[in-house]
Write a structure and sequence with these properties.
The protein has eleven helices and 16 strands. It is of the alpha/beta class. It has one domain (2-359): TIM Barrel. It has an eight-stranded parallel beta barrel, surrounded by four helices. The protein is globular, with a radius of gyration of 19 Å.
Length: 375
């Protein structure tokens, strides 16, 4: 198993590369999309939350040339020179595929853009491309202090305005792609219509990904409600992952397996779900993070204090010889002069210890009980 680290676009610099390697990372996941482009959290290291009107920020903030083969190879060399393998890219920019998500008039044009990006990623030697097929995106959550010791973290506090207010026109995936869109909100659609849209996406892209040697990896919906901001969700229960895989069975139709999101779901057993998909070879890489509670009331926690027994997950991965990458994704902030750095270092250290247990074949002990309700 490989220990990885995720980099937002504004973190692609030597200072952050050194920090990741010092934490034990050998592999990198890069967010090419500038989520924070002129948004309310511009320059923040923590995961974006955004607001109802502007979302995270404005789409299209990443220069088009950044997706070229030349630029991707240059970034790969930059990472390699710092001791990191470029393992995955996470997410298309909404500016590149908003009409694929919305079944809009530019759908066919934009699916060709997505195909070219995947070809470029393959030619640059990057093996995985993560995506999240979602209209509302990661939205509807609050910042709070529910982690151990009152640490700042993120979660849901029931059904309220931030997860029921309809998505305005010109916004998708929690980013604004059209500042001049007419007043109003996205039209209502059914879950089945959303599944038709993702089927189109996969049938167009999976053959291209196969030819390019790239695995497309789907993230589940976060938060995993059936509807968020008036739009249906795709993968909000564990069994829906299997439905996605079954659309086009292929190594290139894979999963960006987020343990925290899967554990937040109202149904399913996280250990059974992990066993199923790792045994089937579906998992491209893993967001190795912990939570406490279920939708619509949950909170992200430190890696060792949530309801998931992470040692038990590691044992399942070991049993099936999983050789993919694990990243902490995000974690609570700690009370010090460098809150994000301290939180990430804590998570990475815990993951490194579990990784060493596997490498050295030490017996992994499971916790006898885990917290299953919100504090």
């Amino acid at each position: 198993m490989k220990l990885g680290f995720g980099f937002y676009r504004h973190m692609l610099n030597q200072e952050h590369y050194e920090f990741a390697v010092q934490c034990g990372a050998t592999h990198a996941v890069v967010h090419m999309v500038d989520y924070f482009n002129t948004g309310v959290q511009a320059g923040d290291h923590h995961q974006p939350v955004g607001d109802l009107k502007g979302g995270w920020g404005f789409a299209g903030g990443t220069p088009e040339d950044a997706w070229s083969v030349k630029s991707l190879i240059a970034l790969k060399k930059e990472l390699n020179d710092q001791g990191l393998e470029f393992e995955a890219i996470e997410n298309f920019d909404p500016a590149q595929w908003h009409d694929v998500l919305l079944d809009g008039p530019k759908k066919n044009e934009q699916i060709e853009t997505c195909k070219q990006i995947i070809r470029n990623v393959g030619e640059a030697g990057i093996p995985i491309f993560g995506y999240n097929f979602s209209l509302a995106g990661v939205s509807g959550r609050h910042v709070g202090h529910g982690a151990r010791g009152g640490a700042e973290t993120i979660g849901m506090k029931g059904i309220d305005e931030i997860n029921t207010t309809p998505v305005p026109n010109g916004m998708v995936w929690n980013m604004v792609y059209d500042k001049e869109a007419p007043v109003g909100s996205l039209p209502e659609i059914s879950h089945e219509e959303l599944w038709e849209r993702v089927a189109y996406f996969l049938k167009e892209l999976v053959p291209v990904a196969e030819a390019a040697g790239v695995r497309l990896a789907a993230h589940p919906d976060d938060p995993p409600l059936d509807f968020v901001r008036g739009t249906p969700r795709l993968v909000y229960q564990p069994d829906m992952y299997q439905r996605l895989i079954d659309i086009i069975p292929s190594k290139s139709n894979a999963l960006e397996f987020c343990l925290g999101t899967l554990s937040e779901m109202s149904e399913g057993d996280i250990y059974e779900v992990t066993e199923r998909h790792v045994s089937q070879g579906d998992i491209a890489y893993i967001h190795f993070r912990n939570v406490r509670g279920k939708v619509p009331n949950y909170m992200e926690t430190f890696i060792d204090e949530g309801q998931i027994d992470m040692a038990r997950i590691m044992a399942i991965l070991k049993k099936h010889n999983f050789d993919g990458m694990l990243i902490p994704d995000h974690t609570p902030k700690m009370s010090c002069d460098a809150p994000w750095h301290a939180g990430m270092a804590y998570a990475m250290g815990y993951m490194k210890a579990l990784q060493q247990q596997v490498i050295l074949d030490f017996p992994i002990k499971f916790a006898s009980t885990r917290v299953t309700s919100m504090a």
